[in-house]
TrEMBL record:
<dbReference type="InterPro" id="IPR000515">
    <property type="entry name" value="MetI-like"/>
</dbReference>
<feature type="transmembrane region" description="Helical">
    <location>
        <begin position="223"/>
        <end position="248"/>
    </location>
</feature>
<feature type="transmembrane region" description="Helical">
    <location>
        <begin position="149"/>
        <end position="171"/>
    </location>
</feature>
<keyword id="KW-1003">Cell membrane</keyword>
<keyword id="KW-0813">Transport</keyword>
<dbReference type="InterPro" id="IPR035906">
    <property type="entry name" value="MetI-like_sf"/>
</dbReference>
<keyword id="KW-0997">Cell inner membrane</keyword>
<keyword id="KW-0812">Transmembrane</keyword>
<feature type="transmembrane region" description="Helical">
    <location>
        <begin position="110"/>
        <end position="137"/>
    </location>
</feature>
<comment type="similarity">
    <text>Belongs to the binding-protein-dependent transport system permease family.</text>
</comment>
<feature type="domain" description="ABC transmembrane type-1">
    <location>
        <begin position="111"/>
        <end position="302"/>
    </location>
</feature>
<feature type="transmembrane region" description="Helical">
    <location>
        <begin position="52"/>
        <end position="75"/>
    </location>
</feature>
<feature type="transmembrane region" description="Helical">
    <location>
        <begin position="183"/>
        <end position="202"/>
    </location>
</feature>
<protein>
    <submittedName>
        <fullName>ABC transporter permease</fullName>
    </submittedName>
</protein>
<feature type="transmembrane region" description="Helical">
    <location>
        <begin position="286"/>
        <end position="306"/>
    </location>
</feature>
<keyword id="KW-0472">Membrane</keyword>
<dbReference type="Pfam" id="PF00528">
    <property type="entry name" value="BPD_transp_1"/>
</dbReference>
Amino acid sequence: MNRANKTSVATPAAAMAAHNGDFMATQASQRQSAAAPEARRKMRREGPGSRLWRVLVWGAMIFFLVNVALMIATVTMNSFATRWFGTPLPEGFTLHWYAQAWRDFQLADVLWVTVEVVGAVVLLSIALGVPAAYALARAQFPGKKLAMLVFLLPLMVPPVTYGIPMATVLYKVGLGGTLTGVILANLVPSLPFVILVMTPFIEQIDPNLESAARIFGANTFKYFRHVLLPLLVPGILAAGLLVLVRTIGMFELTFFTAGPDTQTLVVALYYAVFSTGVRAPQSIDAMAMIYMAITLLWVLIALQFVSPTQLVSRVKEAPKGE
């Protein structure tokens, strides 16, 4: 009796499952049959020339990426190799070259100078760039486009164009070769960069928020502290990280203005490669790996926060959270 009941219960379920399976299979078959003519029409529309062009583009991209990956792998392997002559892999691996690079190139001092320059440039560019971006986003005055063009001019021309005259002026006033001179030189392209990032960010903040805050008795400081600053934090963070990555890799302006004791990591790496004297290539590769690791670390951190779509969405979502 029980067996009969189980059979009677299982049979409708199995029938339902079979029915559902047939229905899903029928739907999948219908979708495939509908997509097949469209795919054939697309292939006929593209033609053999388009497919050949696509193959060439993908081939060039893969060739470029493989070459870059092989170069990075070679430098990485050589920085850990004891001996590597004519064999697919080194005879052994060691950290000796990193210790030698740290000692020979005085990397502790170089990294400290890099931290000082990058930190000062980020703080100054944020402190000066955000108010300037706010004024450009809110104020309407004659010649606003011209002022914006002047602000953004250092981003549109190569740093060598204005780097040499600027370095000449810095040396004449006694700032050439000093830490202050290196910071000022790197601040020139960083400040417009902050303005470029923050101006559209501020333009999307509703100006009526300030009027509403005033109506409820907020003064300028309270409006800035409780209303404007929380909305600006994502943009400030994004601009600061981008300036940080840019300043770590800024070579030309630092090279023109740095002295023996004010070299950042990228300039010290250049002198390590091209300076006179016999240096072990493994030691130079180790220094290059340290520079690449620091840069990639900050790029990855920046990518966690910096995205044009995120900037827009955070500005729009912030008032809802309030």
